[in-house]
## 1
Amino acid sequence: MTEELRDGYDVVVIGGGAAGLNGALMLARSRRSVLVIDAGAPRNAPADGVHGLLARDGTPPAELVARGQAEVRGYGGQILRGEVREVARAGAGFTVTLADGRAVSALRLLVATGLVDELPEIPGVRERWGRDVLHCPYCHGWEVRDRAIGIIATGPNAVHQALLFRQLSADVTVFAHTAPPGAEQVEQLAARGIALVPGSVEEVVIAGDRITGVRLGDGTVLPREVIVVGPRMVARGGLLAGLGLVTEEHPSGMGETVPADAFGRTEVPGIWVAGNVTDLSAQVGAAAAAGAMAGAQINADLVLAETRAAVELHRARAGFSPAGG
């Protein structure tokens, strides 16, 4: 069944994860007409549960999204499964065109499209991503505590990851791979009892439904149960390029984000962003909070615009001239 859409909305939210849905919730509760468009491909889909989220720790990602959608709908917001093909300026607002050819207008946009993890091209990494190939100790660390963990160094953050995972397991090994640590970092690893293995990793070895080790360039297989990598994280911001809003390299060197201020307001009037599209490190709780903040700011911006228009109309009806004539 095709969702019945209005011609225009106060706000169209592109992306229906934690950030987008919480932004939509704030707007719908402010009696704004809101449409959330979501492609249904969340970054955290492979994960068994969302962690570090107060009162919802361990909730499966799909369940959290379903609850959020129900809450937004409960306040009159609309949720549409679909892909956005194009976003274009239309007067003071925007036209959002879907892949199926339908189009809607919006006075404001909230973009919460998240990011893409660009994984190292090592056989076995992509197949186990989000299960026993991980990157975040706060998202998945407790679940792999006390296991044999291997960090494949692909960037400057590898030693930092190793030190964090060492808090969770006494059996941590760093594989130098393409980013061997410097002298100071080698000393840090040694001081914490973290082994350092030189050479490249050629394969993550899988047996049945689990990781059993890593194969090095010389053919040696070292046993490991969990692998940690550092993906390059790139914001899904391509839709905004036509409006003059492009991604920028993050100061950490770990990826690209859409720049915005602390409230999610971008350099393009009328567009806000929230979640991983502008904050690489935001977990679900932080993304949801950012969405709520952006939603509140959008509502306030619309209130100001409506008030200005109301004042102008009031003056016209009263025959009032600011110059006194």
## 2
Amino acid sequence: MRVEGLGKTFAGGFEALKDINLEIRRGEIFALLGPNGAGKTTLISVICGLVNPSRGRVLVDGYDNVRQFREARARIGLVPQELTNDAFIKVWDTVSFSRGLFGKPRDPAHIEKVLRSLSLWEKRNNRMITLSGGMKRRVLIAKALAHEPEILFLDEPTAGVDVALRRDMWEVVRALRDSGVTIILTTHYIEEAEEMADRIGVIRSGELVLVEGKQALMQQLGRKELTLHLRDPLASVPERLARHRLTLAEEGHALVYAYDATADEDDGTGIAGLLADLEAADIAVKDLYTRQSSLEEIFVNLVKEAT
């Protein structure tokens, strides 16, 4: 799937999307992160054909999603954030109805396969009103998969569910990816992207500011910290160590040194020089450990750049 020069300007002049270019690889999990109002839902709505773009185009398996809407849309499944199911319809009926909307012939075997894969088979004759919030969200995924799409959009798939169910849903999404479905998800849970995504995109004020593999992103933008636990506490950082920009922590019992995670370990990190200066200053270190910044810290720093 390719997004080329996509822009969306609403009535009144608000520019929600600005020249978005993106390629989603077949069979990957792509996480789209961004603060509220950044343009995540607008981007998904345009890709899925729910909102017309002001400029640019979207190609789904080679089909233009405006000029060849039916062909493009048939390849997409969308799981919205809101739970909007009819309260009194049965699970089997609502999932089967969604398949029919795309002109697909009846296929009870496929509907059964989808329901079983989402642990919904035992609930197939239940009315929607009797299901928990987590089960209703699973039904939304089942409805989106009923017509056998190649690409599945998940808009905040675990919003409002508890931690245990969220992890269950992660397993469901991984299984879908392993079956060949391409997954694009938006999420406010940074750990969700860190846990599942192959690649991550960050959208800010309608602009796609970064697209990168998760591990590469952590390496490129991550920061490492070296914490040195001292034998004897310090009241302040000695002047002779000022060049290392150390931070005193744990009531003087530790020094924290930040460095570039991508630097050459032999000389670029500055750790060797720091340890030599500590020895020269007769500051004894009894223990040390390193910590790399999390995806959440990286994301917060990227968003801050806009302010």
## 3
Amino acid sequence: MVRRFEGLAEFAAAAGEHLGFGPWHEVTQREVDLFAEATGDHQWIHVDVERAAAGPFGGPVAHGYLTLSLIPLLVREVYSVEGVSMGVNYGLNRVRFPSPVLVGMRVRAGVEVVSVSAGGGGGERQAVVRVVIEAEGSAKPACVAETVVLLVP
């Protein structure tokens, strides 16, 4: 269930709180292939299904950056902030990929609000949100990222 915040002040009050987990999303070969097309990263461990089956992971794996790019999809199922006209990606403080995501695995995001602070002169807020992407059946997370988002009222 999506947690809805009734504005930036209510969201800021959640700093230090884990907001929960979103639903599972299956990573498909089609997503991996489309990501390869978009980025030009056609490494065989991602796109050559037969060769990858005999490779170190036993099958094709999603690009680490594909896993990272799933954050908007996965996080919107965890929380939303009302009264915000837009959220702008400001950057990342830290990103790690502790374990691979094999094609066919399901992933989900756990979200923690690290901090919310003044972000500019127009009432904007800068939120630091820690996102942990879990891969079903894996002992380690697939991705741990500290995202920085500018929230504009």
## 4
Amino acid sequence: MADVKVLGFWASPFVLRARIALHLKSVNYEYVEEDLESKSDLLLKSNPVFKQVPVLLHGGNSISESLIIVQYIDEVWSSAAPSILPSDPYERAVSRFWAAYVDDKWSNALRARLVAEGEEAKKATLAQVEEGLALFEEEYGKLRKGKPFFGGDQIGYLDIVIGCILAWVQVIEKFSEMKLIDEAKTPGLFQWADSFCSHEAVKDVLPDVEALAQYGLKVRAKFLNAKPTPQ
């Protein structure tokens, strides 16, 4: 039995973070796919507070929440590969700031666009997604220092945080019938996204966009069916 396990779900960008971090550190692990409609006893026992994926199991301990997991992997396997988090304290703080922005605001804008009803709501939520991409384009120019990734020569913390949501951006592009990351509007991100998605640590775990779009339609339908009927 593997000493390291990841409990996950194929469509979750947050699960991808843990898997890519392990790949970057060349850590062998067992991936366990969860049925989120019927969660396993192992998941419920390992993450009794949130009952969510991802969960990293290592040496008899369980670690939850994707950003915490990535930092844990970086610290435990510190000598296995270059550090995922920047070594400079200021750059590390900046990366954590943008990671918080992604999780607290930008990913919520993507979810809102996915389930938006009506043209006005669709336009408003799409504008929030585009605002985030414009910010990332600007920050990429500052952080990369002429190198291919936010982390420099290698994929780093912010690359993982943003990059794992790229497939969902492509789903939103599909639903909106427009390109959000293209060579004209976001030339830096356009090149970065190609480099990220083709990286050895990434390409084999990215979800299929068509399958993800179909799953997105199911999520949207479930959300709309759960909304209270106007009186």
